[in-house]
């Protein structure tokens, strides 16, 4: 009663208070809040996921992986592979034009692939097999390999880390260590740089000249039909405000609502939640520093498995079992290469045994430095659970609290922990990328050239290469199993489960949401 | 007066130079590396080092400082490490929302605080006074973000009278502009309202106890005239000082308000830039904030001369 009376009084006091329609009322505008703001316009220069989402709107790719992670032609009209599987001939489809009106030619494509191949980890691996790329004419080019690498098309269509975005030749000639100055692609949307307010809003306008494919859309494959006139990626840093804005109808799409708010969103009128895809969106894991004692000893690394009860981590991070999955594996559970290899390492939760094994490995109670992020929605609680488990086991923990930006900086240091280095940090990886041994860079063990923690094991790298060379799905699965077993034994990292952050959107206002595989697919969304 | 203003303006130069020096080196000594953030999750140490080298962050700190200072002298604040856009453009994009929020908050705070402060002094130790003082304590105690969420819940989510978030520039129309500022100004203004109301009350009580006030009352002047023309004018100097301090405090206050209400102002730009270690943007912002603070102090000092004829420069 009070509410009604008070609301009535306020309505009288504020007669024009109804939220006004935006200036572009005639335009169909999609307002989406993503997991981060667009600050970088070059998806090759950075591997930030948000830069890839931006890139996928404005740039097209030769191939696009479908919902089953199978590469399908996107800019390519037809392609041929020679019988020895060493020469790929690609022909671009008709009607491809950059946003400035210039046609997409093989010169643009080759320059773009070279730049991507110089920067991106998967691209570098592919280019390691490429001996030459040559244009046949403006629409056809060849890629010649020195060995029959089996991941060519998957690499060109991947969505994890940097997508193989096709830029204008003049942009693609930019040093890969520097950001391109203009974001001009040939994709379904054009970047409105003049309306860009970094940290607040990025605007994309429908590319009216875009010629979509005719196949039905499936994740990054098939027709990319721009569904609205304008997409605004609005950045709302406060999750509670973003949730309220969605409930209030001020935004249409919220890519990554915080797990705490899911029960509220489930009940909100007009709002729907959607699982992001066939594969869980995130895998969480603990990385040990293989260069510094005690974890330079494989026995000490293996001891850490006995401290992990994945349910503890997942309950702290996600809460609702509907959205998480216990998965004592490195290759994503539910993915095409889900494997049983090495899972026995994580069968037992036994802190006493962990300490005993650590002692056997030479640990004498020295402080173990854990980089503890204080400002991350999932990594912060996971790190707290780990620290608690270590302390309960009797391990001397030196928890170094800092913001995530500082963790990212410090984890790159190879020095001993006392001199600014580290022993342990916690992080996450995309579920789609982690499902494939070649795309999943964290499973690698390339020593100094690998990712932070620097695992070093020739056998693992050999198996990853073998996976890339495998010519049949059966062979790949066999290698994936063997690779996971070896990586678990060497403890390249310790998984603590996987979870899904569902997309939230206004079902009464928008349609055409596609479950994504690795990156949010925004171009097909239509406004009711 | 003119000589004084010119002298004060020149005196800001060394202040700004010291601020520039401190902010530059403090940022460089703070942990964190923009190259690691740019390179992203899947970047190797080699890739991070390559980005760092291209950004010039591997050069000696003194060399970096000299380069930045030379740019500043030319009026160039540099470009954002992330967006590659000029810092001046980023700041100018964000200036209007922050200025609008600061002024609307001050307007709300001053327009409500001074009358209730005067009222509390006039009715000292009575129920009205206690209510005003109770409100002031509550205003101080209530964190801005708590009040902000309460306002959002009722006015935006439950009753849908005002938007949850966002900012509408004045060019989009006066009402949308005002509408987007009502809740943020209220949330942020309560604290300042409390501060100004308490100061007004204390200052007024002191003035009301003076002999000349007794004379004014004995002459049979109307209460309104006594309170507003005689007492308030004489109590104005401490009030103006507190309003000035309030403007300085607002600079830190808007950070939270801008975040909760998603207003793309300088406060949010600062937080984002600090978290991302976007050095040129943080440096530029601190200089702008320092300059604004110096200017506000100067304006307050000048205003003393108008409020109190005994003060001369």
Distance between the termini of chain A: 35 Å
The biggest sheet of chain A amounts to: 7 strands, mixed
CATH topology of the largest domain in chain A: Dipeptide-binding Protein, domain 3
CATH class of the largest domain in chain A: Alpha Beta
Characterization of the model:
With 528 residues, chain A is of the alpha+beta class. Chain A has 15 helices and 21 strands. In chain A, the strands form five sheets. Chain A has a seven-stranded mixed beta sheet with strand order 8-9-10-1-11-19-12. Chain B is globular, with a radius of gyration of 24 Å. The chains are: A alpha+beta (528), B mainly alpha (313). Chains A and B meet through helix 1, helix 7 and helix 13 of A and helix 2, helix 3, helix 5, helix 7 and helix 8 of B.
Write a concise synopsis of the structure shown.
The complex is a heterodimer of chains A (528) and B (313). Chain A is of the alpha+beta class and 528 residues long.
